[in-house]
Amino acid sequence: MKTYTEYLTFSTKKKVEFINITERISSVVKKSGIKDGICLINAMHITASVFVNDEEPGLKNDFKAWLAKLVPGPLETYHHNLSGEDNAQAHLMRTIMGREVLVAITAGSLDLGPWEQIFYGEFDGCRPKRVLIKVCG
Amino acid sequence: MKTYTEYLTFSTKKKVEFINITERISSVVKKSGIKDGICLINAMHITASVFVNDEEPGLKNDFKAWLAKLVPGPLETYHHNLSGEDNAQAHLMRTIMGREVLVAITAGSLDLGPWEQIFYGEFDGCRPKRVLIKVCG
Amino acid sequence: MKTYTEYLTFSTKKKVEFINITERISSVVKKSGIKDGICLINAMHITASVFVNDEEPGLKNDFKAWLAKLVPGPLETYHHNLSGEDNAQAHLMRTIMGREVLVAITAGSLDLGPWEQIFYGEFDGCRPKRVLIKVCG
Prior knowledge:
8 strands; homotrimer; 5-stranded antiparallel beta sheet; 137 residues; 3 helices; alpha+beta; 35% strand
């Protein structure tokens, strides 16, 4: 099996932020030279996510509001935060959104559906965090 | 790496519907001729899901009732629906259920546990939508 | 593509329990001899999970308390339990936590971020259940 590996680093301006990384992943696949196979994209941090959804600003707001309801504050609700941390909610939110995505590669490109876009989801941002891309073919 | 790709199309009768696709995926794996490897199965639409669970009618009802509670109406609650859409809840429900499944292939067959069945989960149905299958070995 | 397959069996002492399996997965990867590729790790039972998060006891308690809130009792709430079963909640909890994880292998090791640890998540324990590991390279 042929493989190609690359790492991207993100440092968001907000604590919770979604970044569309479809074009960047697409470039990595082109660079790999792999024409048919699969592409793993995963957050390397446990308070961040890689997921597939829609590039629509209203929906991004819906995701944020919904996650805030599913993982409510205050901070002191969470055992993890008693150890000096303040990001327990980020761990749980990323669990809902998922760690990784596996996208097929067909005819040299990401084989995505009409509205599928790949996002980096940050839930405890404002510091550099990495995403791993492994192209296999 | 050897690969084999196929697409299935589903057009459900109900807005929310779960279809057991294990047999169909199994046929695609046989057709691929791949005896050992992995099989990616993913929804190509962002209001649909591919997931693994149990073929038990009561449980399917539990999933539907539970998702309706985790992603409650009314429609106007969601920013996405202010743009003329009405399917924000379907985007969030599919996020809970997951976009994709990766199943091992061993000795020429899907290497599933005793109760593992593969489902297509539709949350905004009544129109044709596709599932991608990529067999790698 | 070269592959290597192994199965681990877990029989937890508690109904809900998280077991850190990073070291065991790492050993399987070493044994495979595969230096670059991917490693699929999935629960073979539909009331169990494989997921990546943090080795921090407070956070593990947070996950358990949070799942109990997202999937509340009593047992009779769930159709699945009317068929003589009592584990509907375990099916839903595992859906939140995920069935599987795909981890990259680079330079002969699991290519994990600084805090990424792999866990087996049991939601209906006290009996032997299996995890599948498929290393591909």
